[in-house]
Every structure is written in C-alpha cells, then in structure tokens.
Design brief:
Helices cover 31% and strands 27% of the residues. With 204 residues, it is an alpha+beta fold. The chain folds into 2 domains: 139 residues, Electron Transport, Fmn-binding Protein, Chain A (Pnp Oxidase, Chain A); 37 residues, no CATH class. The protein has a 7-stranded antiparallel beta sheet with strand order 2-1-5-6-7-4-3, covered by helices on one side. The N and C termini lie far apart (48 Å). It comes from Aurantimonas aggregata. InterPro entries: Pyridox_Oxase_FMN-dep, Pyridox_Oxase_N, Split_barrel_FMN-bd.
C-alpha cells in the first residue's frame, strides 16, 4: 500500500483547486448564508480534542433553530441527549469546530469553521425556549470561514431521492443492535418501546 505523507505528494495526486473554490470562502454570513440557516433543521458538528480525539455529532430541530447572532456568530441550542458530551469536552481543550448545515431536498450545504464556546447565559438561553423548556446550554461559534459546498456528494449518493431509501424493516431496529452490542437483559422489543417513550418525554 502506498501512503501519502506530505502535502507535496498529495498535490501530485490532486489538481489545484478551481479559483472559484478558493474565492467563495467568506469570513462572515452574507444574506444567502443567513437565508440558508433560516431553513436549516440539521447540522453536523466536527470537533477534535487537544489530544487528537475526534468526534462528529448531529444536532437537529425545527428549521431556523440555529440563530445568527450577528454576521460572524451563530448559536446552536443543546437539547437533552445521551450526556456523553463528546463534542463539548473536545471544545473545552480545543475550541476549533467545523459545521456542515443541511436543508432537506437541497444538494448544496453550508459550511462554517470557527471557534466554539459553551454558554449558559440566561438571556441567550431564553432565545431558544420551546414550550416552556430551555436548552441545557448553547454552543456559540465565532465564524472564521463560511462557504457553500457544491452538490457532487449529494448527487452521487442520491441522498434526497426517495428511490434510494431503504425499507427500514430490512435493517435491525436500534433496540436489536443495542441488545447485541451491550447484552442488555431487556428484549429488543422492550428496548425499542422504552426508547420511544424517552423520545416522547425528553425530546426537549
């Protein structure tokens, strides 16, 4: 196996980027980025601890759940989850994060790279109140790079094409996978029922 180890070697395999791919990078949010965020219900957050421990975590809510505080800052509410805190623990030692925002049915994505911090500011938390419930905290990201990513990956994958969707019953349920992986005493059906109940009661 031939392994690439230097940038020079890498550039013998790949061409130089197109000029527009470099020029499209912005340092803040323009009107198109703001409009995208207003329609966005889902973001993937990439982080890496100072030790090198990496993580990518999803966040999702109703469209517009990510707020642009200004042209250089976005805020993402954190709702109840599994409390592993992989992303947040990484941020505490290395605040650099990479965000990819998705809008269903749209093949282009919005990318924001920058520095993150975790806030429990009361006024900021209040902006994300939902049915009387506040987020546990809010991730504030100070943008350093903002740009739209082209559609090639989504075109190749057919991600939004219903004809590519699998029949969910053809794959084990979450409960069945948990049963196999952790050897829980509950049956797979019981795990699934308990999960559905927790989803119903603790989504917010």
């Amino acid at each position: 196996m031939s392994t690439i180890k230097t940038v020079e070697e890498l550039r013998t395999v790949y061409k130089a980027p197109m000029e527009r791919a470099v020029l499209k990078e912005m340092v803040g949010l323009d009107k198109h980025a703001r409009a995208f965020l207003e329609r966005c219900p889902f973001v993937m957050i990439g982080s890496c601890a100072e030790s090198g421990r990496a993580d990518v975590s999803p966040k999702g809510d109703a469209p517009g759940f990510v707020h642009a505080l200004d042209d250089r800052t976005v805020a993402i509410p954190d709702r109840p989850g599994n409390n592993r805190l992989d992303t947040f623990e990484n941020i505490l030692s290395n605040p650099q994060v990479g965000l990819i925002f998705l809008v269903p049915g749209m093949n282009e994505t919005l990318r924001i790279n920058g520095r993150a911090e975790i806030s429990t500011d009361a006024d900021l938390m209040a902006r994300f109140e939902h049915r009387g419930k506040l987020p546990i905290s809010v991730m504030v990201v100070h943008a350093e790079e903002v740009y739209f990513h082209c559609a090639k990956a989504f075109i190749r994958s057919g991600l939004w094409d219903p004809s590519t969707f699998i029949e969910r019953g053809s794959f084990p349920s979450f409960g069945a996978m948990m049963k196999d992986q952790i050897a829980l005493e509950e049956t797979a059906a019981e795990i699934d029922r308990n999960l559905e109940e927790r989803y119903r009661l603790t989504l917010y």
